[in-house]
TrEMBL record:
<feature type="transmembrane region" description="Helical">
    <location>
        <begin position="170"/>
        <end position="198"/>
    </location>
</feature>
<keyword id="KW-1133">Transmembrane helix</keyword>
<feature type="transmembrane region" description="Helical">
    <location>
        <begin position="94"/>
        <end position="112"/>
    </location>
</feature>
<keyword id="KW-0675">Receptor</keyword>
<keyword id="KW-0472">Membrane</keyword>
<dbReference type="InterPro" id="IPR017452">
    <property type="entry name" value="GPCR_Rhodpsn_7TM"/>
</dbReference>
<feature type="transmembrane region" description="Helical">
    <location>
        <begin position="132"/>
        <end position="150"/>
    </location>
</feature>
<feature type="transmembrane region" description="Helical">
    <location>
        <begin position="51"/>
        <end position="74"/>
    </location>
</feature>
<feature type="domain" description="G-protein coupled receptors family 1 profile">
    <location>
        <begin position="31"/>
        <end position="259"/>
    </location>
</feature>
<keyword id="KW-0812">Transmembrane</keyword>
<protein>
    <recommendedName>
        <fullName>G-protein coupled receptors family 1 profile domain-containing protein</fullName>
    </recommendedName>
</protein>
<keyword id="KW-0807">Transducer</keyword>
<keyword id="KW-0297">G-protein coupled receptor</keyword>
<dbReference type="GO" id="GO:0004930">
    <property type="term" value="F:G protein-coupled receptor activity"/>
</dbReference>
<dbReference type="GO" id="GO:0005886">
    <property type="term" value="C:plasma membrane"/>
</dbReference>
Amino acid sequence: MDLSVLKQISQIQVQIIRYEEPIILVLGNFGNVGNILIFGRRDLRKNVCSWYFICLSLSHLILLDLVCLSRIIITSTGDNVFQYISSLCKFRAYGFELSFNLARYFLCLVSIDRWMITSSSARLRQQSSIRLSQWLIITGVIFWAIFSMHAPIGYQPTALDCTAPLGSNYAFFVSIESIVISMGTMVIISVFSVLTVFNLHSRVNRQIHPTATNISIHIETQQTIMPNAQTAQQLFKRNMQLHSSYLHWSRKHSEKSVS
């Protein structure tokens, strides 16, 4: 490909980043801060899922500000400091790796929690608690903070950008890691979303269609009520007959007394 064409493509990319990234940065920060304010309300903090959404929004804030802001600075100044300042390169690589993994982790927790809370098992629903969510958040942050330490070790400033050295074993590891974590996140979210829909569908069916036990109880109740109703009807007829006999006797007695 001609160098002039490559140069034009590069200029188009720079222009897109220059005008697109600020909009993404502003809208992304506004949306995530709004999520934190909404889910951080006192009445919503009792919900386990609210804590996961707050942590998810914080992860997205870090991810947006690291990636978008760095691109805006590079395109505005024309100087990519991440190509020759190793500390900035490693800091951005670690922040990107950590925030990206945490975002996917909290998305998985949201899907699993929705499945648990819609389950028909009371024991499983009880597992969705604030205490468990706090434990999962703390342990998850610690785990991914330690796991992401490979980024500042492996990423190096190069002539292109701050990336893993091309053709190295670490570059191969980063590719495999990205594929495995992305596919695993997608599978977990898909599976538990389907299970959640199944739980909701089963709950609706149980509310609409009576179970066999309820039907048998209803039949037994009707069988018990029917004889009682027949007995009451017979007693009512007998009382009416006695009442009419009494009226007939009293009428005759009054006629005799008058005569």
